[in-house]
Amino acid sequence: MSRDARWKALLDLLVERGRLDVEEAAADLAVSAATIRRDFDQLAEQQMLVRTRGGAVVHGVSYELPLRYKTARHASEKQRIAAAVAELVAPGEAVGLTGGTTTTEVARALAVRGDLTSGTPALTIVTNALNIANELVVRPQFKIMLTGGVARPQSYELVGPLADGVLSQITVDVAVLGVVAFDVTHGAAAHDEAEAAINRLLCERAERVVVAADSSKLGQRAFARICSAQAVNTLVTDAGVGADMVRRFEEAGVRVVAV
């Protein structure tokens, strides 16, 4: 197993369990305890975990994995969600895409839609996510507007006053939000307050708001609020969402699409 693959496996286990012991992780990954100790030390230096005596723990409420380590989690669900979100977009519309793994899949789903292969433009995409702009800029039928701002290496998102300045001058037909938590009472949220502020502004500039989130994020809270549940028109999630959760969102005025 390569170091990158081992680190990804360790981080996935840590997110799932909250705490890992050296011996436990070594057994799970079939490597030596010395290798795990070295991995934990190096990951702690990059602030991806907190080192403890004999193991490691996550950072707590503000814990956030870099985007490159999150892409494989709930991958099939995210692809189904993305395809359903893409179908909510009409040709010629202006679409705002926040950063995140699910919204990245939405961008890919839009890129392969047969009825969006031509147009002047077929879609206008507004995003503060460098990776999404990079993937879509090769599609000449799409007009890509990338906000300015300071890049966050964890999510590839641009934040700050420069991004605010661009978004305050435009409007979009639909904003698609990637979130880390979405709750009827506490609303949609992100780990980082700067990202949440940009996402909130994008919502305010949109005619309709779609949250794209797998069911593991529903009923959860996170540090920085983006918007209330009542500000969201549609939630697209996977079939793992419970009936009671669907009912609560619908009572709050949110249309729920489970795929």
Quick summary:
36% of the residues lie in helices and 24% in strands. It has helices at residues 3-17, 22-29, 33-45, 75-86, 101-111, 130-136, 161-167, 193-204, 243-251, and strands at residues 19-21, 50-52, 55-57, 94-97, 123-127, 142-146, 150-152, 157-159, 172-178, 181-183, 187-190, 206-212, 224-227, 234-237, 255-258.
Per-chain topology:
Layout: H1 3-17, E1 19-21, H2 22-29, H3 33-45, E2 50-52, E3 55-57, H4 75-86, E4 94-97, H5 101-111, E5 123-127, H6 130-136, E6 142-146, E7 150-152, E8 157-159, H7 161-167, E9 172-178, E10 181-183, E11 187-190, H8 193-204, E12 206-212, E13 224-227, E14 234-237, H9 243-251, E15 255-258
Helix pairs in contact: 2-3, 4-5, 5-6
- State the strand order across the main sheet: 6-5-4-9-12-14-15
Radius of gyration (Å) = 19 Å
pLDDT average, as an integer? 90
Tell me the fraction of residues in β-strands, as a range: 15-25%
Largest sheet entry: 7 strands, parallel
Number of helices: 9
Helix-and-strand structural type: alpha/beta
Keywords:
single chain, 259 residues, alpha/beta, seven-stranded parallel beta sheet, three-stranded antiparallel beta sheet, 9 helices, 15 strands, 36% helix, 24% strand, globular
